[in-house]
Structures are given as C-alpha cells and as structure tokens.
Amino acid sequence: MDLIAARLNKISPSQTIAISTKARALKAAGRDIISLSAGEPDFDTPRNIKDAAIRAIEGGETKYTDVAGTPALRQAVAERFRIDSGLDYTSDEIIVSSGGKQVIYNAMVATLNPGDEAIIPAPCWVSYPDIVALADGVPVIVPCAAENGFKLRAADLEAAITPRTKWFFLNSPCNPTGTAYSAEDLRPICDVLLRHPDVWIFTDDIYDKLVYDGFVPATIVQVEPKLRDRTVTMNGVSKAYAMTGWRIGFAGAPAVLTKAMNKLQSQSTSGSSSISQAAALEALSGPQDFIADMVQAYVARRDLVVGMLNQARGLTCHRPEGAFYVFPSMEGCLGKVSAGGTEIVDDEAFVTALLEEEGVAAVHGAAFMFAGHFRVSYATDTESLREACMRIQRFCAGLR
Ligand code: PLP
C-alpha cells in the first residue's frame, strides 16, 4: 500500500516557492543573487501592529478563540468591508482563517464534489488550480490575452460556463499581472453571472489597497448587489499591512457558506492564532496611513521596472494598475541562445538561464498558466531592482 495518498498526486509544490528556494541555495553557495520571485512586501510590519501583538501576549490573549475568529476581529473586518467597499456583512457572515489561502481551501473543500468545475481566468495565482484539484474539482482555465490588458472578456466567461460550473474565481488586482478591474470592467462580467444563478463567485481582493495612478478598484458585490448571495469576498492582511508571516486572511460570504467553512476549520486548524488576530485587529482598525506610504514606494518601483524592462531586447512589459508584480512577455527571445549557451525554448528556459547566468530569480509564466511571459516582483528595494533590471537587459542583449 502506498504511503502517499493519490490525491496528493493531483497537485504540484508551489513553483514560486521552488524558485525562491533555489535562489536562496545559490546565495548560500556564495553567488550574488537578486530575487524578484517572492510574493511578499519587503516592508516590515508597522510598529503599532507589532505592539498590539505584544500586548496580547502580555495580557493573556493566549488561548483558543472562536473558530471563526474573535468577535472583535470579525467586527473590524465587517467594518473595513463597509468603509472600503460599502459592503454590508454581519459577524456571522465573516470568517477569519490562517491566511487568504486557507479561506480559499476551506471554500473549495466545503463545496466541491468530484467533477465540479471552477473557472479560473489566466494568468492566475499558482495556488487556485491546485487547491481546486485537491478538493476533487476541475480547474477550467480561461486565457486572458495580454492585448486586452490580461482582462477577462465577458464572452469568454460565458463560453466557459457549463452545467458543472460551481465556482468562478476573480483576482483583482491580479497576481501575477497586476491587472485590476474597475466597476466599469466588472459590469459585463456581472451581467454574465446574473444569467447563471448556479455559479458561485470567489473574489480574491487581497491586493486591493495596492493600486496606483488614482485607479479605483471595485469588487463584485459592490457592482452588483444581486450577486451577494453567492459571492465570497476574500481579503487579508498579508499584502496591505506587510503581514505575510502572521497568517491572517478573511472573507465575507453568505452564512450558509461561512457556517460550512467554520465546520471544516473546527476540525482542521481550530482557527487562527489568537496573537495574530490581535495584531490584525490593530491593522484593520488602527491608523491606515502606512498604506499610502507603501503605495508611493511601489508606484515608483513599478515605473522604474516597467521602463527598464521595456528597454530590454525581446521583452514587452505592460504598466499594470496594482499589486507589486509585472508580467512581461519574453516571446521576442524565443528560439535564441543565451551567452551561456542555453537555448531559450520557452519561458522556463529563459528564467533558468537568467538565474544561472545573471543571478536574477524570476518566475516563468507557465507557473501561472500563461507561457511566453515571466513574473517580476518589485516588492524589493530600488537599488536591487535597478541592478536586476540592468542584468536582465544584459542577458537579453546577449541572446543570439
Ligand atoms: N491570493 C493571492 C492572489 C495571492 O497572491 C496570495 C499570496 O501570495 C494569497 C491569496 C494568499 O495570501 P495569504 O495566505 O498570505 O493571506
């Protein structure tokens, strides 16, 4: 009898984590490596948030909490949804989990039966297809062309819906493209969804505070309140408050679903860390000006990276509305041979040769279900970004 369950063969380890691990190993071996592969802010968690966690420890908030999250945190989440997007959720419609990732996992495991389909616009975050597959569902990938700013067209969504469709995922701003949807962009998508009352919607808004140039993000329920009864609005503290290690994510959803997710969570994690919840409470209800400072830094970095990548021979890089990623096309490099002798047969060969020859770690597009591109995270300091982009330019100039 095999030790490892068959279900584990349906998924692969996160490729972004694999590349970051390889970059770290090269660095440990003494190589000069700049990693643009991580999906986390380089900023430290703000002082007031850390202090709240310390106070929680000292004050004895060290016990189990309600499985769905402390009443105070759920209320603060509801309040943030109200202030930020005009959404109205009661406390029993809010669930707090160990990261947004666990919210997604809970929702899928709680609802998918074998063969149920989940529509995922691509490029997409690496974990959606794997989590769906782990929950016995079938990921249905819908490509979104670069020419359309990587945005999903309503007609493509309509064409992907079948009688087996249970979920539709939307991630705005998007990892890996940074593409964000305005209310106007979402309208035709909502119109399609209104015509298909059996489809549930999972909107992952985890980057919605990181938007630039005055862009106003929107979320599904805000644009079409009639979809509220079948939408999960997910968010978290990882990206907006530089709190990836604290592992707090949350969602607003109809009580029928939060109840099911709560049941699952009660037999898996028993809920999130009490200390992290106290920190997240301060993040959501304390001063928010830290976010504007971060946004200002990110926008300058985005402009630097987009400008420099567009000067690299064979690359084309769009200027996204949000998050901290760009997703340039490397199709102009295909078929060439690098200075180190690697034939660039695809995006994976490109990032592998780039790491080995120039010490720059990025993630190939195929990991995000979209070949011919690669993802650069600009959540790192300006000097490293400038040096990394210079090396990418040199690498591309060396292709023959
Ligand atoms: N959703 C997207 C699109 C992400 O990029 C990430 C993290 O990289 C997450 C969700 C999960 O974040 P966390 O589990 O840290 O809340």
UniProtKB/TrEMBL annotation:
InterPro entries, sorted: Aminotransferase_I/II_large, AspAT/PAT-like, NHTrfase_class1_PyrdxlP-BS, PyrdxlP-dep_Trfase, PyrdxlP-dep_Trfase_major, PyrdxlP-dep_Trfase_small
SUPFAM superfamilies in alphabetical order: PLP-dependent transferases
Gene3D superfamilies for the chain: Aspartate Aminotransferase, domain 1, Type I PLP-dependent aspartate aminotransferase-like (Major domain)
Broad EC category: transferase
Pfam families assigned to the protein according to its UniProt record, in alphabetical order: Aminotran_1_2
Keywords from the named record: Aminotransferase, Pyridoxal phosphate, Transferase
Annotated protein name in UniProt: Aminotransferase
Source organism: Nguyenibacter vanlangensis
Organism lineage string: Bacteria, Pseudomonadati, Pseudomonadota, Alphaproteobacteria, Acetobacterales
